[in-house]
Specification:
The chain is an alpha+beta fold and 205 residues long. It has helices spanning 8-18, 34-39, 45-55, 58-61; strands at 71-79, 87-90, 103-106, 110-119, 124-135, 138-150, 157-160, 164-165, 174-183, 191-200. 16% of the residues lie in helices and 38% in strands.
Length: 205
């Protein structure tokens, strides 16, 4: 049976069902430099250990080259145990090319999104991954994921979204345009990119 496109009314109903109630009432803390944070509360043993856990050996690992961004988002991976092959976007390559490609995702499967990123110089507070989903030009969903606060280190960090289920049914099948952004408390746009997800009845339909 041929796939049936949803009507504008049906898209509006989906968007209304996904609408989040209210915003997050959160006030970010004042920004402090790495050195200021290291100097704070030197005599507090428990706080010192906490900062060591967050910062690591920052004096050695921090990148000093000002041309290198403090936060580098390197990869997006769609994690699905039943996928026949890894679904990965290299976010250090040509971002424009992703607008012409589509991930194929089988309807009804469970999946997570993994974001890989690096922090190079200063502690960044309140990192957040924002994802807006469009179908035929209509925004039907928006998700905000709090990633957290991170200090500089030479190896990458990874963030996993909660487990989600892909939409299913004849009306759900088709291409979804996704606009992603990696931001923080100070509203720095560390990276924005667009990609497409094609929901099909089978992995290779």
């Amino acid at each position: 049976m041929a796939e049936q496109d949803p009507t504008p009314e049906q898209l509006a109903a989906i968007a209304a069902a996904n609408e989040e109630e209210g915003g997050v009432n959160y006030k970010p803390p004042a920004q402090k430099s790495l050195q200021e944070i290291q100097e704070l509360d030197k005599d507090d043993e428990s706080l010192r250990k906490y900062k060591e856990a967050l910062l690591g050996n920052s004096a050695v690992t921090a990148v000093t080259d000002p041309s290198v961004p403090n936060v580098q988002v390197t990869r997006l991976t769609l994690m699905c145990e039943t996928a026949p092959a890894p679904l990965t976007l290299d976010l250090q390559g040509d971002l424009e090319a992703f607008k012409k490609q589509s991930f194929i995702l089988k309807e009804g499967v469970e999946y997570r999104i993994k974001i890989s990123f690096k922090v190079n110089r200063d502690i960044v507070s309140g990192l957040k991954y924002v994802q807006q989903t469009y179908r035929k030009g209509v925004k039907i969903d928006k998700s905000d994921y709090m990633v957290g606060s991170y200090g500089p280190r030479p190896t990458e960090y990874e963030f996993l979204t909660p487990l989600e289920e892909a939409p299913k049914g004849m009306l759900a099948r088709g291409t979804y345009n996704i606009k992603s952004k990696f931001t923080d408390d100070d509203k720095h746009d560390h990276l924005s990119w667009e990609w497409n997800l094609n929901i099909k009845k089978e992995w290779k339909d």
